[in-house]
User: Fold this.
Amino acid sequence: MLKLPRSSYYYKPKGTKPDEQEITIRIEEVIEEFPGYGYRRVARQLHREHVQVNHKKVLRIMRERGLTRKRKRRFIRTTDSNHSCIIYQNLLQDYSVTALNQVWVADITYIRIMTGFVYLAVILDLFSRKAIGYNISRNLDTTLCLSSLHMAIKGRNPPQGVIHHSDRGVQYASSDYVDTLRSHKFLISMARRGNPYDNATAESFIKTLKTEEVYLWEYRTLADVQKRLPYFIEQVYNQKRLHSSLGYRPPNEFEQMFLLTKKSQTPCLATLN
Assistant:
């Protein structure tokens, strides 16, 4: 007899094609964790796990299992652009982002609780889509946004000349917020009136947050929101959620790969000398 270890009989190589029941179970698990995923993103997640399945089959299974439906909620306005503060021009038109800490985008959204609403202010790095600053408050005011900005500055230690892009809301146009940006040498950019595409990345983040977290929970208090949202932002969105614009990678992984590539392309002193 061949002297093979017992494990050899049970070895299942990576990439082995599973049966449809196994694929269906895994698709349901992915959708349960990421309810906003479409069939292409689900297929990409399975590919990362070495599951051999094409996107057409994933779409068929999701349709058969009723996993393609999306919930819609009514819109609550959080932007008040009727104010006397200075409005800055949009610096992102025809601007190409090629590295981290070139452009930060900011936005605000509401979250319903039992007694009304609370608000989330968030800042993303436009290159990596990573949420780098956020704050939750009962009050839709400048302090809400300033706390988000301070978190981002502390975590990233940005260089001079970073473009800070937002809507025209009074929170971002206020003297306190603008003075903070100027003191850290930011360039200030604001979206055009009534043009949602000018801040599409921030809008996309908020849509993801709502469909994959907020709409799945019945928050009762501010404390409930303060407990759940940081977990979703840090552990799910930044750490695990795949982004098609990042080559179907999570923001943290994308940033790590970018920094490693940049480091490998930097010539050493010995070479320069």
